[in-house]
Amino acid sequence: MQLVELGLKDVEAIRLILNDAILNTNAIYDEQPRSAEVVQGWMSAQLQNRRPIVGLVDENRTLVGYGTYGTFRVLPGYRLTVEHSIYVLPDRRRQGLGRRLLDDLICRATADGLHAMVGVIDSENAASRRLHEKAGFTLIGTMPEIAIKFGRWLDVCLYQKLLK
Q1: CA-CA to 4 of 20 to 30 Å: which in 11, 101, 125, 151?
Q2: 123 CB-contact burial (10 Å; exposed 0-12 / middle 13-18 / buried 19+)
Q3: Where do the domains of the chain lie?
Q4: Would you state the pLDDT for residue 164?
Q5: Rg (CA), the chain
């Protein structure tokens, strides 16, 4: 697997991975698949704000996972804290790809002079919770029944890593 920087040419590959997560998991609490236009607009904003979008491609140059970070909250006091997201194709999960992406994002955020990284994780996503704990994130709280998806109330776990 090769780590690569992604750009607007990768909209469809990112959309495929993201929409799988939307439709089939609690990794993201959206319920409607995203159009190419929406993904392109999000990517354009990320790139304009100098926020990385990194991916892993296999030997066929197929995108199998991606990660990014962006604004945690919009108020100026939060400017040195980011929230990250990582998504991997279903048949490529549990192969260490999420860890490679997370490690890269941590390095980039540290190099960018950021202070803290936050992960917002569904409480039932044991694999993601373990990944974050192994990467040095600390569980800082759980918000019970904060969202609803697939007709069920969901709890969110907040994880934080100080970068300096």
Answers
A1: 125
A2: middle
A3: 2-162
A4: 81
A5: 15
